[in-house]
Amino acid sequence: MTTKLFGEPVRRREDARLITGRGRYLDDIGAGALAAAFVRSPHAHARIVDVDVDAALDVEGLVAIYTYEDLTGPLAEPLPVLIPHPQLTAPRTGYPLANGEVNHVGEPVVMVVATDRYVAEDAAERIAVTYEELPAVVGVDAAREARACVHEEIPDNVAARHHQETGDVEPALAASPHTLSFTQYVERSAGMPLEGKGVHARWDADDRSLRVHTSTQASTSVRAAIAAKLQLPLDQVEVVAPDVGGGFGVKIVHPWPEELLVPMAAIALGREVKWTEDRREHFVSSAHERQQRQEINVGFDDDGRITALDVHVWHDHGAYTPYGIIVPIITATQLVGPYVIPVYRVVVESVYTNTVIVTPYRGAGRPQGCFAMERTMDRIADVLGLDRAVVRERNLIQPSQFPYDHHLTFQDGRPVVYDSGDYPALLEKLKVLVGWDGIDALRDDAEARGRLLGVGMALYVEGTGPGPYEGGHVQVLGSGKVLVSTGLTTQGQGHETSFAQIVASELGVPIEDVEVTTGDTRRFPYAVGTFASRAAVMSGNAIALAARGVRDKALRIAADVLEADPGDLEIADGVVQVRGTPGASIPLRTVAVLSNPLRYAFDEAAKQATQFAVQASNDRPPVTPGDAPGLEHRDYYSPIRSTFASGAHAAVVEIDPATWEIDVVNYAVVHDCGNVVNPMIVEGQVLGGVAQGVGGALYERMAYDADGQLQNASFMDFLMPYASEVPDVVIDHQQTPSPLNPLGIKGAGEAGVIPGSAALASAIEDAVGRRITSMPISPTELYDLMRSETAERTAASGRRTGVGA
Amino acid sequence: MKPAPFRYADPRSVPEALEVLAAEEGAKVLAGGQSLLPLLSMRLAAPATLVDLNRVPGLDAVEVTADGVRVGALVRHAGLLAHDGAARVQPLLARATANVAHPAIRNRGTTVGSIAHADPSGEMTSVLALTGGSVSVAEPSGERAVGWQDLFVGPLETSLPSVAVVTSAYFPALPPRSGTAFAEVARRRGDYAVCGAGVVVTLDEDRRVAAVRASYVSVGLTPEVHDLTDAVAGAPVEKADWAAAGALARTLVDPDGDLHASADYRRLLVGVLTERTLIEAAAEAAGGFQ
Amino acid sequence: MTVSIDTERTVRLTVNGVPREATVPVRRLLSDALRHDLGLTGTHVGCEHGVCGACTVLVDGTPVRSCLVLAVQADGAEVTTVEGLARDGGRGGQVLHPVQEAFRECHALQCGFCTPGFLVTIAAGLEARDAAEEITEEEVDDLVGGNLCRCTGYANIKKAVRHAAAAMAVSAGTAAGPPAISAETAADGAVR
């Protein structure tokens, strides 16, 4: 009994190596490689006056030093703007090594290659770079005020003004019975995988081929970028993502300077070269996300139904725009969530600051959009004196309204049309799960213990599985082994297991026979990448289609051998047999052998397929026209548009009114990602996302000072939660299958993180009765808020205490 | 993040260690290394020579007498935490050590090393002060005791000369009719405290408050001991106004703000933690009468 | 002077029961020596300042951060890394440590990068306690509390600790069996 594994909590196949220390991460590769280290800018904004490497030259073990002057051809040009967009009117990217100017602390200026990393750092330390400091623009408000600019030619610091509207918002607001306007902020955090980035390159001078391992979420595109930038034919470049120690978005960006420079050095030196990013580098030279200023105007009626919504967001994208305006677009389009918004206008101004670049971090603009929408719901409820759940309920898109067209354009350039969902049911389940209607009793109980208790909720809809496409290849070997490959990469999501489940189910083979490879351009050269909760949707469906192709072919060949109609055959446990006729069967591995007509018998199995062993028809060639040798199939899945997952979170917090410490005592999640391949893995994704959501709401921030120095570039001061900071989470599920793809699945990777800040802000506000307008929030900030004379009191708190607001 | 080059010696005796320290300019003593090694890896410190005490025999003992506890230079936090005898004589030792980082750090880090590191956000500097302790310092001229008041000069700075090895720390026993408590507020469990408080309450023979002392973690540039007795002196232990003692404490401290807490917030916590720890310590002191 | 002051040393230590030797600069961190000089790449480096715990190994049976110990300091020590947790099961097979089994069973890892540090810390902690005593939530929190994981949200790691503790109680002959993880528990590739 093996084959119907789709939907089962199959234990992960990758774990066997990962729990015994046999994983192969980037730094585990290339034991004898030279090591690269970088001299990085200590200034947020400066002109480079001079680079003096003399003092480094006598460091024993130094092999090479590279500055911008050493870059040639396309490598000396700016890094690519990966996702151009007509509204991205002033894109800027850096150079692999700074060309005369640095725009954030951490920008690479000089690369040093030496016998090991210790020595490389010794040499880097001795290189003297002279800078002429320029005024630094730090934070979204400074960028907006534009008293100084990041790039001289862009005086207003605005790279893009992204604008979408679904109607005439101003008259709609004017006609609304009630309106509210307010401004709120979300701070920077970062994905912060436990493994930083890293690149290893090996150049084979004899056949002029380059093999690059990189800790990436997009190996095929890194390959194309390396080939283009180093002017190598594509077929001479292989890129492999080995085991990757977490990504969360930061590794979707490419080519990172190091992904070009390390191969460049490997070719120039004829030696293996490796760069393993250290934690400090990761803080100042990878990517962050999340800072936005949100100005919101909302109109609504007496029942709390939204009549118009006008949102103006200022989005800090850091020093450069390599990833275009994807995050702003996602905020703009996902903000509307599960709600009917009759008239909606959104403008996102994406602005430059002298800080680390901003590119997608798990959630990718959605947490901010959710924060905007859900806090708006809370405010409407507060003004009208309604239950926050009731206001949400009244605005929800109803199950009968699917497909629901928001008349917006998503990050994939396709319409935001929700494919399926049941939001009222989500909300109802959430209320039950968290005990929403019984919260006052909990509040009283907490009060008796001297604690302030509050509850908050947040709902979201997440566009997942955007195109353009992914592919899958499935091949049955004569041994019975089934090789599966797809081009996108894996960073811990368990693709080796879930994709194997799909193939085992589709093909009717034991999962033990299935071997999955991801992210290796030698195996599958066409792919887009792993981001936007798309791997299961995209590669899952592509692999399913490929497996179906193999199945069709296997049945065709087996039908010939068994002299049966293919429609009467089934495959189970790796054996093709005539349904209802025991004994009339042929193992799939034999079908695989027979699929490849042979002249030479290289082993026992192969004998069966050789020309004198096969009783072939003399009327047709050994390989049927239009067919191909081998039991394999390659297929692609390219969706018409994204599929939309949804969910609802609620948090209960208790606050110590003496120390203002915030304790999350209950965290409830209802989650809908359509059909589920492996519920254990999906639940794991949700739990991990929630931890990042809680971290982003209560602990993590990038603390830049006014000079653009990151004050907390270490795990000591950037407060990623330990187990002690993550609440217990209760999860309930709902499945509304996607009608858009063969497997009916929706993405699950990012969901858990999206509503964290919104739900927790709501809960804290509920507990303390003061308006929370900025997240994250720490005890010291909550203390400031509580003793501030200007902090707004919520109407709800006034009603509870009987004192007007 | 790799240490800059240095030279390394692992002497087998304190005199040998002193010999190396004297011979090598820019030499630094290494014990547990849990504070020093991150500084080395970040190249925020680059001593020319490390003198590793870990192979010096005899420095790993916890000696307990009725008068106090002497903790050798190589006693790990975990060892002190688990030492029942030490906890009996001076309960603050275990109570504070339990707040030092996480177990894997406590397994390697030494109590004396963290005192010699003189970090005002270290728990054990504060405990040394609160208990009126001292360290024993070996120098080429001989061994001498240095009281805590004379030891701490500034953040990460002691009065000790470069050719010196702290061989032990001495924590006097808890006085009779006394109770202690220790508490911290940290952003994450195991982090350096945003604010920590250790207190000692001593009663007179009539169960009235005779003395109240407190010392704080992450408050001020060096450890200080604050006498809070005035707020509650002479009050029967059950009726003492511990909130008043907390309020007094708030007026005595001079905290700084940083990324994780404003100065005002630290001051708030000083008051709250003082009151809460005093209630606990007073109950313990009172319990000693039964 | 009788004391040797060096820039390089030959370090002899026993790693996972095997005597090993490496000549290293004295500044080499134990984490780097294990990974790069001895080729034991199962121990991972996540922060190099002692906070994340990914590099945790056992030195003479005690969990320590290998990024906060110099290789020369481990001269003469017995070191256990994640590669040494499983026991030789004979005929080339390996018998996983109950903690390793539990991590797989409870989906306590995703990317796997932090996993070695958790495994050795928890294994040492569980072995040091009386297997007959039911593990408390406080003990679980202590065992997982000093390591960072960015993928799992820790819930399944805590579940794995309880599972392993129960399994160890069984092998100590003091309990009936590990708690059922879920009604539909399935092993790698096989639905039960």
Task: Summarize the entry for a quick read.
Chain B: This is Carbon-monoxide dehydrogenase medium subunit. Helices cover 33% and strands 26% of the residues of chain B. Chain B has 290 residues and is α+β, with helices and mostly antiparallel strands.
**How would you classify the helix and strand content of chain A by structural class?**
alpha+beta
Q: Please describe the biggest sheet of chain B, giving its number of strands, its sense, and whether it closes into a barrel.
A: 5 strands, antiparallel
CATH hierarchy: architecture of the largest domain in chain B? 2-Layer Sandwich
* Mean pLDDT score of chain B: 97
Treating each run of at least 4 consecutive H or I residues as one helix, how many helices of chain B? 12
**Cα-atom radius of gyration of chain B:** 19 Å
> How is the main sheet of chain A built?
7 strands, mixed
pLDDT < 50 runs, ≥5 residues of chain A:
none
Query: What is the total tally of β strands of chain B?
Result: 14
What share of the residues of chain B lie within helices?
Answer: 25-40%
Most extensive contact: A-C, 67 and 65 residues
Task: Give the N-terminus to C-terminus distance of chain A in angstroms.
Answer: 65 Å
GO molecular function, one term (chain B): FAD binding
Organism (chain B): Geodermatophilus siccatus
Protein name (chain B): Carbon-monoxide dehydrogenase medium subunit
Pfam families (chain B): CO_deh_flav_C, FAD_binding_5
Search tags:
heterotrimer, B: 290 residues, alpha+beta, Uridine Diphospho-n-acetylenolpyruvylglucosamine Reductase, domain 2, Uridine Diphospho-n-acetylenolpyruvylglucosamine Reductase, domain 3, Enolase-like, domain 1, 3 domains, five-stranded antiparallel sheet, four-stranded antiparallel sheet, 14 strands, C: 192 residues, Ubiquitin-like (UB roll), DNA polymerase, domain 1, five-stranded mixed sheet, two-stranded antiparallel ribbon, 9 strands, 20% strand, oxidoreductase activity (chain B)
SSE order and pairing:
The complex is a heterotrimer of chains A (about 800), B (about 290) and C (about 190).
Chain A: H1 15-18, E1 34-40, E2 46-52, E3 62-66, E4 101-102, E5 108-114, H2 117-126, E6 128-133, H3 140-145, E7 158-165, H4 169-174, E8 178-186, E9 198-204, E10 209-214, H5 219-230, E11 237-240, H6 257-269, E12 273-276, H7 279-285, E13 292-300, E14 306-316, H8 326-334, E15 344-351, H9 366-384, H10 388-395, E16 404-409, E17 415-418, H11 423-434, H12 439-448, E18 452-464, E19 470-476, E20 482-486, H13 495-507, E21 514-518, H14 535-562, E22 569-572, E23 575-578, E24 585-587, H15 588-594, H16 604-607, E25 631-637, E26 643-655, E27 662-672, H17 679-698, E28 729-733, H18 756-768, E29 774-775, H19 779-787, H20 795-801
Parallel strand pairs in A: 1-12, 8-29, 10-11, 14-15, 20-21, 27-28
Antiparallel strand pairs in A: 1-5, 2-4, 2-6, 3-5, 7-15, 8-13, 9-10, 9-12, 13-14, 16-17, 18-26, 19-20, 19-25, 22-23, 23-24, 26-27
Helix pairs in contact in A: 5-6, 8-9, 9-10, 9-18, 13-14, 17-18
Chain B: E1 7-9, H1 14-23, E2 27-30, H2 36-41, E3 49-52, E4 62-64, E5 68-72, H3 77-81, H4 84-89, H5 92-97, H6 103-106, H7 111-117, H8 123-130, E6 134-139, E7 142-147, H9 148-151, E8 152-154, E9 157-158, E10 165-172, E11 178-186, E12 193-203, E13 209-217, E14 225-227, H10 229-232, H11 242-252, H12 263-287
Parallel strand pairs in B: 1-3, 2-3
Antiparallel strand pairs in B: 4-5, 5-10, 6-7, 6-10, 8-9, 11-12, 12-13, 13-14
Chain C: E1 8-15, E2 18-25, H1 30-37, E3 56-59, E4 62-65, E5 78-80, E6 87-90, E7 93-95, H2 98-105, H3 115-128, H4 137-144, H5 155-171, E8 186-187, E9 190-191
Parallel strand pairs in C: 1-5
Antiparallel strand pairs in C: 1-2, 3-4, 3-5, 6-7, 8-9
Helix pairs in contact in C: 2-5, 4-5
